[in-house]
Amino acid sequence: ANIMVSGLQRFFNPGAELVLSCKSGYSPVSGPRTIVCSDRGEWTKTRLMCIPKNCPYPDPLDNGDIYYEDTVYQSTVNYTCNEGYILHGASTIVCQANGTWSASLPECKPVMCDLPPIPEFGKIIFDNSISGNTTKYGIRVTYECRPPYALVGNKRGECTASGSWTEPPECQMVSCPPPPPIENGYMSISLQTEFDYMETVKYGCNGNYVIDGGYEIVCQETGEWSLQPACMGKIRGLIKGRILYKGRKIWIEDLNSKVLHKEIVSVYCMDKVRKCGYAVPAQCLNGQLKIPECFEGKAYFMTTQENQR
């Protein structure tokens, strides 16, 4: 296979010699490379083999993939690029008879987009620094609007594989109605019928109440206010016995301050088997403190409203 014989004819006399060679794309291995017609009318034997030439292993393709099964003569290599990249050069190369590839390594170049459109009353912040009037595939941006305009649409944009930008958002005027009043508290508010996007209003509580949540609300891009806080009541406890408050064991009579909303007060229950006391926590919630059932002493807690009376 793949061996060529020169000088072929119909008959040969004893002593005739033929030269063997390999077809193009194949290399000789072993020998001899000639055969001779013997006196018995037979050709001498040869171990000559012609094996296909090898091409060098193909280099890896940046931002792409290569596919091949072998690198011998007539083998092929196929190239593809990752999403967002375009192949520049041959997509298929062949190992030639001289042991070289039919073309050089192609290149995967990124898809390019024009600069993204800037929304009216807005701006664009690039994730990476850019130069010129084009951007590469995968470059991302963040959109922002100048108050009182709010962003409507996607806050992020990207140069896509099609060479275009994702749909840009719009900057629209946003306002909020006057904020609701807070019970048992007050707010810093001017006499106006509507508030622009990102404007804030601050809340405070009357003396016997504490604020639960933030002190400030903001007009959001939806035209609604952020979560409003609440003014929660304090309590003053009257328990016969000792309590655990802020890490200290004290007699309730020595409690000079009011217990605030969400603070923990522990009372002592009796372990009748071991004949010793153990602390059981209870939390003040809006002026109310639920005493654990295990507490056998006398307990009474005065709410903020009763305290005012």
TrEMBL record:
Sorted UniProt keywords: Disulfide bond, Glycoprotein, Heparin-binding, Membrane, Repeat, Secreted, Signal, Sushi
Chief localization: membrane
UniProt-recorded Gene Ontology molecular function terms: heparin binding
Annotated function: Binds to various kinds of negatively charged substances such as heparin, phospholipids, and dextran sulfate. May prevent activation of the intrinsic blood coagulation cascade by binding to phospholipids on the surface of damaged cells.
Lineage: Eukaryota, Metazoa, Chordata, Craniata, Vertebrata
SUPFAM superfamilies: Complement control module/SCR domain
Domain Sushi: 1-52, 53-110, 111-173, 174-233
GO cellular component, one term: membrane
Protein name (Swiss-Prot/TrEMBL): Beta-2-glycoprotein 1
Pfam families listed in its UniProt record: Sushi, Sushi_2
Record-annotated disulphide pairs: C81-C108, C176-C219
Location of the protein in the cell: Membrane; Secreted
PROSITE patterns for the chain: SUSHI
CDD domains named in the record: CCP (cd00033)
InterPro entries: SEZ6_CSMD_C4BPB_Regulators (IPR051277), Sushi/SCR/CCP_sf (IPR035976), Sushi_2 (IPR015104), Sushi_SCR_CCP_dom (IPR000436)
